[in-house]
Design brief:
Elements lengths: L3 E5 L6 E5 L7 H9 L3 E7 L6 H11 L4 E7 L8 H13 L7 E6 L1 H13 L5 E6 L2 H7 L4 E6 L2 E8 L4 E4 L9 H18 L1 H7 L7 H15 L16 H10 L6 H16 L4 H10 L10 H12 L5 E9 L2 E8 H11 L1
Helix pairs in contact: 1-2, 3-4, 5-6, 5-8, 6-7, 6-8, 6-10, 9-10, 9-12, 10-11
Bound molecules: nicotinamide-adenine-dinucleotide and glycine (GLY).
C-alpha cells in the first residue's frame, strides 16, 4: 500500500494528511499513534453509513482497543445546522467523551464542518480527525480548520477555526461517490488551478479522475494559502475565488445546487466580470468535468442574497479576481460598484 503524506506546519497545531488507497483499514493504527484516545465518537451521514467505509473504520479503531460509538445524521447540506450540531454534542455527553478523547468526521464537507465545530466547542475543544470520503473534502474542506454550520441568514455563519489533529484520505472511498458529487470536488481542484497552478488546471481541464498525486498537489496549494494566514484575514481569502457568488447561488437555490457546482459557476462569473480572456477555457473545463455552466438566477437575485448574507447594504466588498489561469488577486470595491459590474456583465 502506498501512502503520500502532506505535512501542514501550523506550529503547535501542525498535522499530517495521509493519502493512500485502502488507508481506512489502517485508520485505527494511525489515530492510535497520533492521539492515543480511549474513546472516539465517529460522526457520519446516512449515505456514507450504508457503505463498507464506516464499518472498516470502526473495525480498525476497535482493533486498537479504542471504544467507538457512531453518530449518523441525515445526509445533505440541510443537516449542516445548529440542530445537528446540538445532537452531536448530546452524543458526546451520552458517550461520556472527555478531553483526552476525539471526534472523527467520516464523510464529506458537511460532516467535516459539523464535526469540527462540535470538536471546537465540546468541553471548550477536543481533538478531531478528518477522514474525507468526498473528493471535495479531500482537496479542500478537511484541511485548514474552518468548521461551522449554516444559519437561516446564510452559509457558515456560526463556526470556529479548529484544526484537525490528523487527516486520513482513502481515495477508494470515492468509488461509491455519485458522479455529480465527484464533479463537485473537481470544481475545487479547478479553483486551485485557476488560483495558483496552471499546470494543475491543464492536467484536469480535459476531464478524468484526479490522481493521488493531484490530490496531494491540491492540498499543498491550499496549505500555501493557509500558512501564515490561518484566521483568513489576508492571503487565505484568495481561496474564496467563486465563493461570493457561489454562496449566493447555493442559498438562492435553497441548497439544491451543491457547493462545488456553485463554486464552479461563481468562478465562471468572476472570469466574465474580471478576466474575459479565460472565460471560454474555464467554461470548457467545467463542461468536460460535467459541471454546470449556466446559472438560472439573475445578477439582481444573486446580489440580494449576497447583501442578506453580508447583512449590509453599501460598504466595501473584497472579491477574488482572476488575472489569468494560475494567478488571481484580491480586489476591494464598493458594494454598489460590484453590483453595477454584475448587472452590466452577467
Ligand atoms: P457532503 O458532505 O454533503 O457530501 C456530498 C454527498 O456525497 C452527500 O450526499 C454525502 O452523503 C455523499 N457522500 C459522501 N461520501 C460518499 C461516498 N464515499 N460515497 C457515496 N456518497 C458519499 O458535501 P461535500 O460536497 O463533500 O462538501 C460540501 C460542504 O463542504 C459544504 O457545506 C461547504 O460549505 C463545505 N466546505 C467547507 C470548506 C472548509 O474549508 N471547511 C471548504 C469547502 C467546502
Ligand atoms: N475553503 C476556503 C478556506 O478554507 O479558506
Amino acid at each position: 500500500m502506498t501512502m503520500t503524506t502532506v505535512h501542514i506546519p501550523l506550529g503547535p497545531r501542525a498535522y499530517d494528511m495521509h493519502i493512500g488507497a485502502g488507508l481506512l483499514e489502517k485508520s485505527g493504527a494511525l489515530i492510535a499513534e497520533t492521539l492515543r484516545p480511549t474513546r472516539v465518537l465517529l460522526v457520519t451521514d446516512s449515505n456514507v453509513a450504508k457503505y463498507q467505509h464506516c464499518s472498516s473504520a470502526v473495525q480498525s479503531l476497535e482493533a486498537q482497543g479504542i471504544a467507538c460509538n457512531t453518530f449518523t445524521f441525515p445526509a445533505g447540506e440541510a443537516s449542516k445546522s445548529l440542530y445537528t450540531y446540538g445532537k452531536i454534542l448530546d452524543a458526546c455527553t451520552g458517550f461520556t467523551l472527555n478531553s483526552g478523547d476525539a471526534l472523527i468526521a467520516l464523510g464529506g464537507g458537511v460532516t467535516g464542518d459539523l464535526t469540527g465545530f462540535a470538536a471546537a466547542t465540546y468541553r471548550r475543544g477536543i481533538a478531531f480527525v478528518q477522514m474525507p470520503t468526498t473528493l471535495l473534502a479531500a482537496v479542500d474542506s478537511s484541511v485548514g480548520g474552518k468548521t461551522g454550520v449554516n444559519l437561516n441568514a446564510g452559509k457558515n455563519l456560526a463556526g470556529a477555526f479548529w484544526q484537525p489533529r490528523l487527516v486520513i484520505t482513502d481515495p477508494e472511498t470515492f468509488e461509491t461517490l455519485p458522479p455529480a458529487e465527484y464533479a463537485n470536488g473537481v470544481a475545487e481542484c479547478l479553483k486551485h488551478g485557476v488560483l495558483f497552478d496552471e499546470g494543475l488546471f491543464a492536467a484536469l481541464e480535459g476531464g478524468g479522475p484526479v490522481s493521488e498525486a493531484q490530490i496531494a498537489r491540491n492540498v499543498e496549494l491550499k496549505r500555501g494559502a493557509v500558512i501564515g494566514d490561518e484566521r483568513d484575514t489576508g492571503k487565505r481569502r484568495k481561496l474564496n475565488l467563486g465563493h461570493t457568488l457561489g454562496h449566493a447561488i447555493e442559498q438562492t437555490s435553497g441548497y439544491t445546487i451543491p457547493h462545488g457546482a456553485a463554486i464552479g459557476l461563481g468562478m465562471l462569473m468572476m472570469a466574465r466580470v474580471f478576466c474575459p480572456a479565460i472565460e471560454d477555457r474555464l467554461r470548457a473545463a467545467l463542461e468536460k468535468n460535467h459541471l454546470p455552466t449556466q446559472c438560472e438566477f439573475t445578477a439582481r437575485e444573486l446580489f440580494s442574497a449576497l447583501e442578506q448574507d453580508k447583512k449590509r447594504a453599501g460598504g466595501d466588498i473584497t472579491v477574488v479576481a482572476p488575472l489569468k489561469i494560475g494567478r488571481c488577486e484580491l480586489r476591494t470595491l464598493p458594494m454598489e460598484a460590484f453590483q453595477r459590474l454584475l448587472e452590466e456583465r452577467l
